[in-house]
Amino acid sequence: MSGAQPITEISFTDLKLLRRGKVRDVFKVDEQHLLIVATDRISAFDCILPTPIPRKGEVLTALSRFWFERLGHITPHHMITTEVERMPDAIRRHPAELRGRAMLVRRTEVFPVECVVRGYLSGSGWKDYKQSGEVCGHRLPAGMRESDKLPAPLFTPSTKAAHGHDENISEAQMREIVGAEATVKLRDMALTLYREAEIYARTRGVIIADTKFEFGRHQNGDILLIDEALTPDSSRFWPADQYEAGRAQQSFDKQFVRDYLEGLAWDKQPPAPILPDEVAAATTARYLQAYLLLTGNEL
Length: 299
Description:
Layout: E1 16-20, E2 24-28, E3 33-38, E4 43-44, E5 47-48, H1 56-70, E6 79-81, H2 89-92, H3 95-98, E7 102-106, E8 108-110, E9 113-120, H4 123-132, E10 134-135, E11 138-139, E12 149-155, E13 158-159, H5 171-178, H6 180-203, E14 206-218, E15 223-226, E16 235-239, H7 255-262, H8 277-295
Antiparallel strand pairs: 1-2, 2-3, 3-7, 4-5, 6-7, 8-14, 9-12, 9-13, 9-14, 10-11, 14-15, 14-16
Helix pairs in contact: 1-8, 5-6
């Protein structure tokens, strides 16, 4: 797929589109299955940018597949296959558009919360800490620096906003949304997934500073890990050999794009500005490097 034209939108006459997210287009296959297609769209500050990131959808799909398989012993996941040739006939009729960026999954009832786990003091967590000494209600020791490793990973859930910003919520608020039993299960799953992934990633030279997970309940009652898993879109990846607490870190994720946009006179309201070709190309390179480092394979 190297050199292929970026794909920003997928449409079929024989598959029903259920929704277009910021990056993924979701289609109904039947009552039990969905097709999730990762496009090359990129969003920042809740705006979809007009410039696609070539091969981004391939990285998101392949890296999610890698983590679903590697962490499947912790919690089951929704992935059935990413091989178009093994999908139903209606999907196999579109190999050129779908190969490398499509995932056939089990349909679930999605829990309406983002399960965020933070291992390091960065991003909005660092901003909150400077103001209050807390991160999402968790009191932290005084004197911590930007990018410091936290004493223990923190579970900091948020709402899932269809439009606009997700909002951080407490575990008590999460219990009101999904119930006490589900809150405990999702929290424990998310923390266990993060800890195992973070230990593995360090052996590959990558620090996973934070990430978000999403879960859904299958019709058989099982809670499944869904959507994507530990990708540059859903995580903050830092090169371990360049890590130094007390400053912002280099990253293998879309922070590079955010940093570029922060330097513009843009009010973070639509329409978003066009990215220069060199910024888009450098972002692709970072996504591909994350995949190579974490999996040991070229995409």
